[in-house]
């Protein structure tokens, strides 16, 4: 099998991160810095083997309040350093991440479950460094809005204050950096709450970053949902950044009403792809596969329902099924694997339920369709389900795992209507040999990003965000910097 990473990786991301095995002491040193004392905290298990990795601290609401107070006190001095000095320190932080890259990747692989290789753990740590560097070096100059000889006015962007960053468990390190890097660059201080499922990875990353940053500029708080709710509602939080489910996003909106915190919400998606009749099934098969199964399908903007024209339907289904049977799945620390387990039991049960329901409604299992207990407790075989339609739960609900429904269509207008009918709109894709026709179809799709002949790739300079129930606000590039700042007009 060819290496999937180059087709998916952004050119700014070093997909060839160091591959030599880190010593166990490197990982142990990271864990020692962040884990709770023996007998305290919450057990965190290896997603693949279910062995205990360590114990994560469980901070309280009082701990959170104290952290926010520290971040608020540190913010004016951090903003006063100016863009040049903040950028210098972020670049130094990126160097620290590079130096600890393999230890971070191995811890991430164990806690989240994604393998080291392919578009997975080493890829994710490399992306952390790349996004830090981009946030540090992207210019954001004052914008002159009027200069007519009588009136001069310019628009500048200043720090919001204290940013609360609430992250998910699927790409825990990378998405934390998506939130942290631009916020710090713009002069904010940040309080980070990682997912309860993957706290050790994120806390370790923050510890590495803090080796380069002033005290209390970046603080991690590992707690339960009560802590997350308090973070969104806290009167001294000026901006909330959240990546996760639409249901939780709605609760954050409600929680933030009292403090009028600004929001960036990247919420659930059920991304549709449309394969036009002129597409070459063999040429697009690998791109379709990795669009759907990157991180074993546990990606917000993964391809989750695929509409294929009747004339090439069986060829596309067959090509995807063959890849599903070939791509190696197993323990993440085994260098040959590129697919791993579901991260947690709840998500495993969702995937199992949706596949069983599709089978009961006449879906044809082309590959997979069942757990893989010989690999471990939370492994589910890479699954392609054909001959399903809109209305089947596997199509209508976000599976967030290794199961892709493939739906047949005959009229492209019907396919576009199907793609747009759900109340989500994070990403979408169009696959065709005719780029102009693909762009015409893409313009009719209701999604924050529509890719052509690929799916799910992100770039640190290309804005990213959802529409409808997939949230609002933009991340990345200049727009991402503006999103963690407040505009100010200097008039005169």
TrEMBL record:
It comes from the Bacteria. GO terms for molecular function: oxidoreductase activity, acting on the aldehyde or oxo group of donors, NAD or NADP as acceptor. Residues 1-41 are annotated as: Disordered. CDD domains: ALDH_AldA-AAD23400 (cd07106). The active site is at 266. Residues 42-485 form the Aldehyde dehydrogenase domain. The keyword Oxidoreductase applies. Residues 1-22 have a biased composition (Low complexity). Keywords: Oxidoreductase. Residues 30-41 have a biased composition (Basic and acidic residues). Signal peptide: none annotated. Pfam families: Aldedh. Belongs to the aldehyde dehydrogenase family. This is Aldehyde dehydrogenase family protein. It comes from Microbacterium lushaniae.
């Amino acid at each position: 099998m060819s290496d999937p990473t180059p087709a998916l990786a952004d050119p700014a991301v070093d997909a060839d991160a160091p591959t030599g095995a880190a010593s166990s002491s490197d990982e142990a040193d990271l864990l020692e810095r962040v884990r709770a004392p023996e007998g305290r905290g919450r057990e965190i298990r290896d997603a693949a083997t279910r062995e205990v990795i360590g114990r994560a601290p469980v901070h309280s609401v009082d701990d959170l309040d104290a952290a926010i107070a520290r971040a608020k006190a540190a913010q004016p001095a951090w903003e006063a350093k100016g863009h040049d000095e903040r950028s210098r320190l972020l670049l130094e932080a990126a160097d620290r991440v590079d130096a600890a890259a393999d230890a971070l990747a191995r811890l991430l692989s164990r806690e989240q479950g994604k393998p080291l290789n392919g578009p997975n753990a080493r890829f994710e740590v490399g992306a952390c460094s790349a996004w830090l560097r981009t946030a540090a070096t992207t210019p954001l100059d004052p914008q002159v809005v009027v200069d007519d000889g009588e009136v001069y006015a310019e628009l500048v962007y200043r720090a919001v204050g204290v940013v609360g960053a609430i992250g998910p468990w699927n790409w825990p390190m990378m998405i934390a950096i998506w939130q942290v890097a631009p916020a710090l660059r713009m002069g904010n201080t940040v309080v980070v709450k990682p997912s309860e499922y993957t706290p050790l990875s994120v806390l370790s990353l923050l510890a590495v970053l803090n080796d380069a940053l002033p005290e209390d500029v970046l603080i991690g708080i590992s707690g339960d949902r009560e802590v997350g709710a308090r973070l969104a509602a806290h009167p001294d939080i000026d901006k909330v950044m959240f990546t996760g489910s639409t249901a939780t996003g709605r609760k954050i909106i409600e929680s933030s009403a009292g403090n009028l915190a600004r929001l960036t919400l990247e919420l659930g998606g059920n991304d549709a792809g449309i394969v036009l009749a002129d597409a070459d099934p063999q040429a697009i098969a690998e791109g379709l596969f990795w669009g759907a199964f990157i991180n074993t399908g546990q990606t917000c903007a993964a391809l989750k329902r695929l509409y294929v024209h009747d004339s090439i339907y069986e060829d596309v289904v067959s090509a995807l099924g063959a890849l599903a049977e070939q791509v190696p799945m197993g323990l993440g620390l085994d260098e040959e694997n590129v697919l791993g387990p579901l991260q947690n039991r709840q998500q495993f049960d969702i995937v199992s339920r949706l596949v069983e329901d599709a089978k009961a409604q006449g879906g044809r299992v082309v590959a997979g369709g069942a757990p893989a207990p010989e690999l471990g407790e939370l492994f589910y075989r890479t699954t392609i389900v054909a001959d399903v339609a809109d209305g089947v739960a596997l199509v209508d609900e976000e599976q967030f795992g290794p199961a892709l429904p493939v739906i047949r269509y005959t009229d492209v207008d019907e396919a576009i209507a199907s793609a747009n009918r759900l109340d989500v709109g994070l990403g979408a894709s169009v696959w065709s040999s005719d780029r102009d026709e693909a762009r015409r179809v893409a313009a009719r799709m209701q999604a924050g990003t529509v890719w052509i002949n690929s799916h799910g790739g992100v770039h640190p300079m290309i804005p990213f965000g959802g529409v409808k129930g997939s949230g609002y606000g933009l991340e990345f590039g200049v727009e991402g910097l503006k999103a963690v700042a407040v505009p100010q007009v200097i008039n005169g």
